[in-house]
């Protein structure tokens, strides 16, 4: 069961938008998912297994992430017979740093974050989800339903929402499109913000706080399926080529036996009733071994972005 400490939560979406580009945030918490709730020191002295550190990137807002992923990590904890610490941070970059320096062994990340982590310190893919029958997803450029815009270029001089500087769908793809015509967000848009989660970008567009935004297609479709009003208030005007779904990754020096056990837990969880119940709210059919070539387009855009910095 989840013990005591809770993750950081927002006082309201408008406040997040106002603070998205500046200011200090309350630190995210690390939440223990275990039967005992014992400290790591106590675990060491009694022979109890130390917690597995699992970080979840802010693809969706912290409260939603905790609600959706807690059951999944509880399942992993039981199958692994080991406590799990659920770690949240504000940005994808912070999640990568946790893995880089061994403060987390496993993480749910964006494909751009994976590509950069692989390049920088050897981050490795463990598995990737199959979501609603798909092993690939897209970046969607969305606008309010009444907007006249037909593509990203029609939003010149408007207000725009990105999700995170290390998001392929929420930053890399739209900035790549702008660079192709010699533009940069600072000059192209009247103003832009980072919402630091895709669901908040969808909400910003739906409530007309911005004139457009770039989002993960999986999150957008997930939100529309849960609440059709988002589909009624927004529309997709452009989408990227398909990329491999955001993967589950591990530290390159994780214990090989733990890596293999985790891989088997993820790959087989759809085969039992409990696992299917955990996956259903996430709209994940199952986990699979990904084809690394599915991330080549993201690697290419990332390389071009580095050249132009």
Overview of this protein structure:
This protein folds into two domains: 155 residues, Periplasmic binding protein-like II (D-Maltodextrin-Binding Protein, domain 2, 3-Layer(aba) Sandwich), CATH 3.40.190; 102 residues, Periplasmic binding protein-like II (D-Maltodextrin-Binding Protein, domain 2, 3-Layer(aba) Sandwich). Helices cover 41% and strands 20% of the residues. The N terminus is likely disordered. It has a seven-stranded mixed beta sheet, sandwiched between helices. It is built from 13 helices and 14 strands. By secondary structure, the protein is of the alpha/beta class. Helix 6 packs across helix 13.
Supply database-style keywords.
alpha/beta; seven-stranded mixed beta sheet; D-Maltodextrin-Binding Protein, domain 2; five-stranded mixed beta sheet; 13 helices; 2 domains; 309 residues
């Amino acid at each position: 069961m989840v013990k005591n400490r809770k993750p950081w939560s927002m006082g309201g979406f408008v406040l997040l938008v106002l603070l998205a580009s500046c200011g200090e945030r309350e630190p995210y918490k690390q939440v223990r998912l275990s039967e005992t709730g014992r400290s790591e020191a106590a675990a060491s002295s009694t022979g109890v297994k130390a917690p597995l550190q699992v970080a979840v990137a802010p693809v969706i807002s912290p409260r939603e992430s905790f609600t959706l992923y807690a059951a999944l990590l509880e399942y992993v904890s039981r199958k692994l017979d080991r406590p799990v610490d659920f770690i949240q941070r504000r940005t994808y970059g912070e999640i990568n740093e946790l893995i880089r320096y061994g403060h987390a062994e496993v993480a749910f990340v964006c494909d751009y974050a994976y590509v950069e982590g692989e390049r920088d310190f050897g981050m490795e893919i463990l598995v990737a989800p199959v979501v609603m029958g798909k092993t690939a997803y897209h970046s969607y450029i969305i606008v309010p339903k009444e907007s006249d815009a037909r593509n990203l270029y029609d939003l010149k001089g408007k207000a725009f929402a990105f999700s995170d500087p290390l998001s392929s769908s929420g930053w890399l793809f739209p900035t790549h499109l702008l660079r192709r015509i010699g533009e940069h967000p600072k000059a192209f848009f009247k103003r832009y913000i980072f919402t630091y989660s895709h669901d908040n970008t969808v909400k910003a567009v739906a409530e007309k706080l911005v004139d457009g935004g770039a989002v993960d297609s999986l999150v957008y479709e997930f939100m529309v399926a849960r609440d059709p009003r988002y589909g009624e208030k927004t529309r997709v005007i452009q989408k990227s080529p398909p990329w491999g779904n955001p993967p589950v990754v591990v530290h390159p020096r994780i214990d090989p036996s733990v890596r293999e056990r985790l891989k088997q837990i993820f790959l087989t969880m759809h085969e039992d009733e409990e696992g299917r119940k955990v996956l259903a709210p996430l709209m994940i059919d199952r986990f699979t071994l990904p084809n690394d070539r599915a991330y080549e387009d993201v690697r290419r855009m990332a390389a071009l972005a580095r050249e132009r910095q």
